[in-house]
Structures are given as C-alpha cells and as structure tokens.
C-alpha cells in the first residue's frame, strides 16, 4: 500500500469522520438509535486508533480516502457500501467495526420501512380521517379519509398550517386549546354547501418526539347518527302531538258532560269521545306494528297468494266509501296472474292503505284503476294502483314513506289517519323482499306500483 505518512493531525481527522457519520445518521428519520450506536462505536475505534497510531508509523492516506468515500455513499443512502482494507492495515479493525454497524443499521432501516408501510396501509384503509400536526401546527401526516371528509381539494398539504387547509375557526380554536391546556376537544363540522353532512372532529394534544406539543385530529362521519337522532326527536314530538290532540278533545268533552248533562248533547259528545279514543287505539296499534317490523320481530307467514282475489275483497270492502265519494273502481287485473309469496294479511294491509289513500285524495267523479304492471326482464309480479286525485308535489315524493309525514295534514287528520300508513306499507314490502314505487303529478293523480316475488314450489 502506498500513500503519505500519517501526520500529527490524523487523529482530529478521524474523530471528525466519526462525528460526521453520527451526525448523518441522526438526520435520518426514525434512525436515532442507529446513530447513537454508530457514534459510540466510531468514537471507541477512533480512540483505539489514536492510541495505536502513537506507536505505529505507517501510510494511511488511501485507507482514509476509502473510509471517507464509504461514509459519503452511506450519506447518499447506499447502506450496501462496505469498507474493505488489507488485514495488515491499522484501520482494518475500524473498517470491520463500521461494516458491522452499517449492516445492523441497514437491517434496522428495513424494519422501519416495513413498519412505515404497515402504518400507511392502516391509515389508508381507515374510515376515520387522521391529521397529525407538529408543534408549529403544520400538517405532518394526513390520510385519504381526511381528504374526503374535509373535502380537501389540494393534494400537497404537508407542511401547511391547518387553518390554511381547513378554514374553520372552531377546529383551529380547539387545536390551540388542547396544545396549551392538554385534554381533548370535540367539534362538529359541516361542509358549507352540504347541510345534512356532519363530521365529528376529536382533537387531542400530541407530545412530539423532539419536544414540543402538537395535535392529532380524528374525524368521523356522524351524519347517519345525527339524522337518526333528529328522526327520534321528530318521532317523539309527532307521537306526543298525535296523542295530545285526541286527549285534549276527550278531556274537553268530558268536562262539558260534567257541566251539561243534557241527554242529546251527551250522546253526541260520547260519540266524539269514542272516535278520538279509536284514533288513539289505531295510532298505538300502528306504532307497535311498525316497531315490530323495524326490529324484524313480526312473523311473516309466506304462502302462495292470489292477488286478484285479495284485491277484489278490498274493493268490495271499500265500495261503500267510494260510492259515497262518487268514485269509480276500475279493476283491470286478469283473473289469472302468477301467485306471489307472501303473508295475505300483511299484503291486504298494503293494498288497503294504498286504495284507501286514493279514495281519500281523489275528488268526486274520479277513477281508481288497478292494473297488472310489467317491466322488461323483471321476474317479479307488479300491481299498480292509479288514481285521478290531487297528486303529490315533487318535493314531497321522497318523504311520503316517512313516519308521520303528511302532504295535506288537515285533510289527513280529518279522515282519521295516523300518518303511519305508507311507512307501514314500505316496511311490509321490505319484509317480503319486494319494493314499492311512486310517481305523481299535481292535479293529475298518483300511481303506486308494488313489486312482489313470485311464489315457487
């Protein structure tokens, strides 16, 4: 080996080399443990080398250059690089030690890379949005769910302040609150152009590895829960109202009866009390039936059902009402159509509700038609109930199957309806793996179409 003789300043050069290796490793993300190990080993070998060089006189120029070149390759990310010196070289033992540390660091780096990939896979697959902020409240991590929940259009948000990306003062205030005082804060956030979308954001303080306090934001879509809560509140309010009205009437009539015992008035008041009590009884029955359907606890006795026979019996039952309202039934169902699989009592309730509604909302001189519906490629049996009634406004069509929803509240109440009929119809269809469709034009009428599965042996 040729080179220059080791001068007196070799010792500080080697020390600087060891410190350079350690400093580079410390700059690697997640590799501080490896940096400490290598720095310690480098220092030990440097000290030993200095002690050795005090008693040795040799040429080390080429060896030092090789060590420096290898460290440069490590600094560029090439952890496969190794130092190979002659066994007689005084720096050979240092080279072997550095190679062992580099090998350990390479294994450690690969483990960290695998951990990183697993973490990224977990974050990507999560339905909840995750945003991690540094102590300066800049974004250091964000997953795809957060982009979607917060409707973030910009893709490059790393390093930007949270308020630049999510322009919401309440969330920003919550972040400052937890970073200063600790604990957690919960904020409800909604996109500006979507009223029924609600995102719950939980903000918590997060101690940073290098000091300081950042924050982590966990966001989840709670729109369904909030909608269910609103429906529950509406349900309670509607039930209270529906019960309060007849109870008020009953109480008023009973008080009048106490003050005025006139037999003629008493008879009329008792009749009205009976009607209101019957209304409450129907409401309670419908509520119980609807509850059982929603919890799938209502038994369904599926047998072959002949729809023309079932519907004809309903038309006979409603005939007097239709006649008094000057309406005409037009039953166009063929006498022989495929049998359907279903519970005859529940299916009778479906068609009784639909035809009763048609009778109620069709003016005198109108017609109610029952026809066989067909749809190309549809193996189910369809029956439509069409009227020439007042129709349903387009904005109400999507809500008519909700509990207690009435298009014409005054007329529905006057007829003794509970506001649950179409909700019950929808649930009965779901229990039968069928479906119901509706189309309507104001002033021209409404068509309800029921689809039911055919009966098969």
Automatic annotation (TrEMBL):
Domain Histidine kinase per the UniProt entry, residue ranges: 238-456
Chief localization: membrane
Designated name of the protein: histidine kinase
GO BP: any one term: cellular response to phosphate starvation
Keywords: Coiled coil, Kinase, Membrane, Phosphoprotein, Transferase, Transmembrane, Transmembrane helix, Two-component regulatory system
Residue span(s) of domain HAMP: 58-110
EC number(s) stated in the UniProt entry for this protein: 2.7.13.3
Transmembrane segments annotated in the record for this chain: 6-26, 33-51
Annotated InterPro entries: BphY/WalK/GraS-like (IPR050351), HAMP_dom (IPR003660), HATPase_C_sf (IPR036890), HATPase_dom (IPR003594), His_kinase_dom (IPR005467), HisK_dim/P_dom (IPR003661), HisK_dim/P_sf (IPR036097), PAS (IPR000014)
Keyword flag Signal: no
GO cellular component: plasma membrane
PANTHER family: PHOSPHATE REGULON SENSOR PROTEIN PHOR (PTHR45453:SF1)
Transferase among keywords: yes
Coiled-coil positions: 95-122
Domain named PAS: residues: 115-166
Compartment annotation: Membrane
One term of GO molecular function: phosphoprotein phosphatase activity
């Amino acid at each position: 080996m040729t080179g220059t003789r080791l001068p007196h300043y070799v010792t500080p050069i080697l020390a600087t080399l060891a410190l350079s290796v350690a400093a580079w490793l410390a700059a690697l993300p997640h590799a501080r443990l490896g940096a400490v190990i290598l720095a310690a080993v480098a220092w030990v070998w440097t000290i030993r080398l200095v002690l050795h060089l005090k008693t040795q006189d040799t040429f080390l120029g080429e060896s030092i250059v090789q060590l420096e070149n290898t460290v440069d390759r490590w600094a560029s990310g090439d952890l496969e690089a190794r130092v190979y010196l002659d066994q007689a070289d005084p720096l050979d033992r240092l080279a072997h030690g550095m190679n062992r540390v580099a090998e350990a660091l390479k294994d450690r780096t690969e483990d960290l890379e695998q951990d990183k990939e697993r973490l990224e896979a977990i974050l990507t697959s999560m339905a909840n949005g995750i945003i991690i902020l540094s102590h300066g409240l800049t974004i250091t991590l964000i997953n795809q769910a957060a982009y979607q929940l917060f409707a973030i259009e910009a893709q490059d948000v790393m390093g930007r302040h949270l308020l630049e990306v999510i322009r919401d003062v309440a969330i920003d205030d919550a972040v400052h609150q937890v970073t200063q005082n600790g604990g957690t804060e919960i904020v409800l956030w909604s996109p500006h152009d979507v009223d029924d979308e609600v995102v719950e954001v939980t903000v918590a303080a997060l101690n940073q590895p290098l000091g300081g306090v950042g924050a982590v934001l966990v966001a989840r879509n709670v729109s369904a829960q909030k909608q269910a809560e609103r429906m529950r509140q509406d349900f309670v309010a509607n039930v209270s109202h529906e019960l309060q009205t007849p109870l008020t009437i009953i109480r008023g009539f009973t008080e009048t009866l106490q003050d005025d015992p006139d037999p003629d008035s008493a008879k009329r008041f008792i009749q009205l009390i009976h009607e209101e009590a019957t209304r409450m009884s129907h409401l309670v029955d419908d509520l119980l039936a609807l509850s059982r359907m929603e919890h799938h606890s209502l038994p369904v006795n599926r047998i072959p059902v002949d729809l023309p026979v079932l519907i004809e019996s309903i038309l006979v039952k409603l005939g007097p009402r239709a006649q008094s309202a000057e309406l005409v039934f037009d039953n166009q169902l063929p006498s022989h159509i495929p049998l359907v699989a279903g519970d005859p009592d529940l299916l009778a309730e479906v068609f009784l509700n639909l035809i009763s509604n048609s009778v109620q909302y069709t003016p005198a001189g109108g017609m109610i038609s029952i026809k066989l519906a067909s749809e190309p490629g549809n193996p189910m049996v369809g029956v439509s109930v069409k009227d020439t009634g007042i129709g349903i406004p387009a904005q109400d069509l999507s809500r008519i199957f909700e509990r207690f929803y009435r298009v014409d509240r005054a007329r529905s109440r006057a007829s003794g309806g509970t506001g649950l009929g179409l909700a019950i119809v929808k649930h009965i269809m779901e229990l039968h793996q069928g479906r119901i469709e509706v189309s309507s034009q104001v002033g021209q009428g409404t068509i309800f179409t029921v689809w039911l599965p055919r009966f098969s042996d």
